[in-house]
Amino acid sequence: MGDRTVSLTRRRFLQASAVMGASSLIPGLMSSVWAAGSDEPEMTTVRVGFIPLTDCAPLVIATLKGFDKKYGITLVPTKEASWAAVRDKLVSGELDAAHVLYGLLYGLELGIASKAQPMANLMTLNQNGQAITLSATLLEQGITDASALKKLIVSQAPGTYTFAHTFPTGTHAMWLYYWLASADINPFTDVRTVVVPPPQMVMNMRIGNMSGFCVGEPWNARAINDRIGFTAATSQDIWPDHPEKVLGTRREWVEKYPHTARALVSALLEASRWIDASEANKRETAQILARRAWLNTKEGYLTARMLGEYDNGAGRRWQDPHAIRFFRDGEVSFPWHSDGMWFLTQFRRWGLLKQQPDYAAIAARINRTDIWRDAAAAVGGITPPAKLLRTSTLMDGSVWDGRNPEAYANSFTLHRTGA
């Protein structure tokens, strides 16, 4: 409405005023202010959805520290109750973009998470930082890992134990399936799996609705604090430096508002760099996220795992070398094609895709490295990766490099029956 009708002169005046107001928050902001011109954002207000999880941090910091104003936009974060709500509002256009599960975005593109919708991944928001929590009841029975869980499960009727994730094609489903399968537990026949929104995980475990769940923080730490569960595995145990949430939007939105997309990514890149710049910044981020407007939780549930200081609630403490990361010289945020392709291999493994997809083509049209590179250039000080594929070694020793995805998908001994 006003974003598209306000005169260019007034728009620039409002942007300049907003930046001046934010300059007290960011040292040196006025020296690097966005210069209006032919590539100015087509929109000045951008609605971005988020789920109250630690990894929504770049959106929150970009908003509160004024990084959005620096690039000529105003972010309007909207808190959502579930990933299904994020999906629906993205598709309808109620949201311009969102903090969203990597696998949800790919599921939308392929029509296996809802009606097919052309989507775009503008950047990865974080790596690592999720976990699999098992109930205190299982811990009392001596179940501390997947192998012990396997012995218990085979002694019971199939489906006796229920495990929750957050969305059928989402990251948490894939981490949970991979972890269970590593101990030869079939996630579709040996146990029952259900979808539960992140904020409802702890409550459902407390009343006995599930024996385990996979979700982002702070809900794993909260389960430990409430003495109802313990961390059996972190997601970085499964895949060190794995991709997690992304900045997702519709492809048509990127095509219609490319300069706004660039400005949005630039703002979140700046925020990501600020978060990872120091321990003090991470602590401040945890303090901010704990507020009612964002996660509405205790700061103590956030800080330790933000800093990589882990206590699994079962007697083990460690400094995690692969704790949640947001920047790492820009490498975290790059929308690697191989990251998206990995989720396709898991969709194939678990029968969500019945036919072999064109892995490379799908990743190329979703992962908008062009927008990311333009944004990185605007931010400055970021060297783009030279390749679109990266190599990773997962918990079972399998090496993923994106070069032969169908062979990789078919390499797993355990897969969904009938897939």
Mind explaining what this structure looks like?
The structure is a single chain. Residues 1-36 have low confidence and may be disordered. The protein starts with a helix and ends in a 10-residue tail after the last helix. A hairpin with a 5-residue loop joins strand 11 and strand 12. Helix 17 (337-349) crosses helix 18. Helix content is 41%, strand content 15%. The protein is of the alpha/beta class. A five-stranded mixed beta sheet has the order 2-1-3-10-4, with helices on both faces. A five-stranded mixed beta sheet has the order 7-6-8-5-9, sandwiched between helices. The longest helix has 19 residues, at 258-276. The protein has helices spanning 2-5, 8-22, 57-64, 67-70, 83-92, 102-110, 136-140, 146-154, 171-182, 201-206, 219-225, 235-238, 251-256, 258-276, 279-289, 300-306, 337-349, 359-366, 369-379, 405-409, and strands at 45-50, 74-79, 97-101, 119-124, 130-135, 162-165, 192-195, 212-216, 229-234, 245-250, 309-311, 317-319, 392-393, 399-400.
